[in-house]
Amino acid sequence: MISRSRPVSGPNSPWDGEFARYFGERAYSLRATAYLLCGDWHRAEDLTQAALLKLYLAWPRLSRHDSLDAYARKIVLRTFLAENRRSRWKRERLTDAPPDVPTTDAETEHDMLVRQALAVLAPRQRAVLVLRYFEDLSVDETAAALGCSTGTVKSQAARGLATLRNRLGPHFAAVAVPGGR
Questions:
Q1: What is the DSSP string of 77-97?
Q2: What angle do CA 53, 59, 60 make, to 5 degrees?
Q3: 31 vs 85: CA distance, rounded Å
Q4: Nearest CA among 38, 22, 19, 32 for reference residue 119
Q5: Could you give phi then psi for residue 36, rounded to 5 degrees?
């Protein structure tokens, strides 16, 4: 009989407690990032769940646990982008009237308008804006997360912001995004 040196996954694997702790600390943050990307809490939950499953499967191979947050965010982002490539026919269409989107008590009208405008951006532009201005990543960190050049990040950010400003109108001439640099 051949013994395998690779750890066995399952309910009693040695890294379950470690992963459960990470899950408890980061699931909410990852879900919020997914929501900013897709604009739907149910879809954000699905994206987060898929990303955390992928992270769990890769957990024993992760040697640099100091960069887990960046790795997890990259998985959420890539899952979102892959899902959008697969379902291009489902894309939202621009209309004169914004869709009816329920707001939470804490969400202001400004936040709701920005989220609605964000929802019409191309997925890649939306990803750049979410990572740059909501997650407060630098251009280099955003490029690393997306697997592209810093020039691509800058051009996608400029195009995305121009689209947001155009979509939001003159009273939002200087789109104020959290952490904007």
A1: HHHHHHHHHHTGGG-----SS
A2: 140
A3: 20
A4: 38
A5: -65, -35
Each residue's pLDDT, cut to its tens digit, for the chain (181 residues) gives 443 444 445 556 667 788 888 888 989 999 999 998 888 899 999 999 999 999 888 888 875 677 888 888 989 999 998 887 765 545 555 566 655 555 455 567 777 777 888 888 888 898 999 899 888 889 999 998 888 999 999 999 999 988 888 888 776 655 455 444 4
Q: Domains of the chain: which residue ranges?
A: 14-91, 105-181
CATH of domain 105-181: 1.10.10.10
Amino acid present at 79: T
Dihedral, CA atoms, 46, 48, 54, 59, nearest 10 degrees?
A: -150
What number of other Cβ atoms are within 10 A of residue 35's Cβ?
20
Q: pTM for the complete prediction?
A: 0.62
- CB neighbour list of residue 101: distance below 8 Å, 6 or more residues apart: 39, 112, 115, 116
Amino acid at 33: T
| Encoded tokens for 181 | 């640099």
Would you state the structure tokens that stand for residue 99, as one six-digit string? 């869709």
